[in-house]
Amino acid sequence: MDSVGSPSLDVASYYFNIYSLDDMKKVRYAVSMFSELFGMSRFDQDSIIRFTLTVRKNYRRVPYHNWAHGFSVANSMFSIIKHSKTIFKPNECLALYIGSLCHDLDHRGKNNKFMLDTESPLASIYSTSTMEHHHFNQTITILQQEGHNIFSKLSSEEYKQVLSNIKHCILATDLALFFPNKARLAKIVEDDQFSWTNPEHRLLLEAITMTASDLSASAKPWELQVKTVKVIFEEFYEQGDAEKAAGRNPIPMMDRDQPDQQAASQVGFINGICIPCYSLLYKLMPETKPLLDQCKANLARWEQLNEQQKKLRENKATPS
């Protein structure tokens, strides 16, 4: 792989279209974004390229939680960091960006509940945030491979701090942790107690920023949102099929025999998770307003579709 140039101008846009890049171009862009954020004085370019190629290889070919998703979340984090220039310190940015790129490594296309219910070996190792712990461990495994330690020039103290922060960032993508994190941060903001010098407050903001990047498909222009939702539901349905094969009933959202549930589940998801996340982020980082705006616009479209589907169901149920 030859020298990596600058990424295109719109790569810092919150609405960047990741579908315009093939898998290898995504690798180039991921390295370019790293270089643009951090420069190369503290890093070895060959190690960054090797690391990124190995990260790409360790995302499985599942419908949604694949390399394209890892790249997309890193790109959204890049955009947030670029737009809110001085909010995060350099080593916090490092943890946020690498944490985003690696946050779903080796995802099997099944959620934590499925892992617990099927008594997966991973669930016996990690009883909470099962997959997130695994994603972090995969990150460490890659860093430990020869020629892959992108942090080799950091001091031992910085190295420990960055790894600890990456773990915090990856675990924060477990939506089960989003709710308590959001509740704590919202209370601090509501009480006008948020302090940029308080390490705990900064960690909470990092956690919410990770969720915002992870869910950024909900804040992309409508045609990109719909394209992503299609692959998300394909992965849901594959889990639902596996649950049926094991003699269990999947929830309606994961049942491919109930495709008319898609709009309703999107309305619930955006209302219950995405809007609260982007609203809270906007209060502390006003530069992220485009994410909130587009998310609200998408919600309005899903609500419209949901109403149409409700009427269709009612008409079907009404005897002629």
UniProtKB/TrEMBL annotation:
Keywords: cGMP, Hydrolase, Metal-binding. InterPro entries: HD/PDEase_dom (IPR003607), PDEase (IPR023088), PDEase_catalytic_dom (IPR002073), PDEase_catalytic_dom_sf (IPR036971), PDEase_CS (IPR023174). GO terms for biological process: signal transduction. This is PDEase domain-containing protein. Coiled coil: none annotated. Its cofactor is a divalent metal cation. Belongs to the cyclic nucleotide phosphodiesterase family. It comes from the Eukaryota. Zn(2+) 1 binds at residues 69, 103-104, 214. Pfam families: PDEase_I (PF00233). Transmembrane segments: none annotated. Residues 1-309 form the PDEase domain. The active site is at residue 65. Zn(2+) 2 binds at residue 104. PANTHER family: CYCLIC NUCLEOTIDE PHOSPHODIESTERASE (PTHR11347). One of its GO terms (molecular function) is 3',5'-cyclic-nucleotide phosphodiesterase activity. Signal peptide: none annotated. The keyword Phosphoprotein does not apply. AMP binds at residues 65-69, 104, 214, 266. It comes from Cloeon dipterum.
